[in-house]
Amino acid sequence: MTPTETGTRPRVEGERELEILEATLEVLDEVGYDLLTMDAVATRAKASKATLYRRWNGKPELVVAAIMAHKGVPVVPDTGTLRGDLLEAYCGGPGGLNDPLAQSVLSAVVTAMGRDPEFAEVYRRDFIGPKVESSRAIYERARARGEVHPDVDLSVLAPALAGIVLHRVFLLGDTVTPELIGQVLDEVILPAALHGPCSRS
């Protein structure tokens, strides 16, 4: 009895899965999300389109899986300081904000989220959700060390670093470097974390 007859999907695993995910990122980098097709990825990966559909439901799931594979297993840094943890989280390893491929892919993702609600939903659920939890864990741990004011609203502060850096990249044309991220940390994020909210008269 074949896998199709039993109603189950054969798994694409190991090196073959990674090859397909790498091919997905290559196509995404070259043509963007709108023009990326399952056919194009299959051709690049030297696989059949049926092979892709056995593993992923469609383009949104495939692209998000490729992005997550490139960034690797989420790890919450623990350097002993909020500054060190945030530098490691945003600059450490592949997929950091200073990774050229990550920047190119993110540009395609931002465009896709505005045009494809299905992709936006999958990306927020599978990628953004865990990132938010990881970031919150960093700030909560820093708060326990006394580096974050007790009254700081982490839902406002935690996304601020990425927001400022991405604004500088996509709107101002800056290049992301550890020095840039360190400057934003030292002049904006860390003072805001330690000072807490301004008193309202």
UniProtKB/TrEMBL annotation:
GO terms for molecular function: DNA-binding transcription factor activity; transcription cis-regulatory region binding. Residues 37-56 bind DNA. Residues 14-74 form the HTH tetR-type domain. Pfam families: TetR_C_11 (PF16859), TetR_N (PF00440). The keyword Transcription applies. Keywords: DNA-binding, Transcription, Transcription regulation. It comes from the Bacteria. This is TetR/AcrR family transcriptional regulator. It comes from Nocardioides glacieisoli.
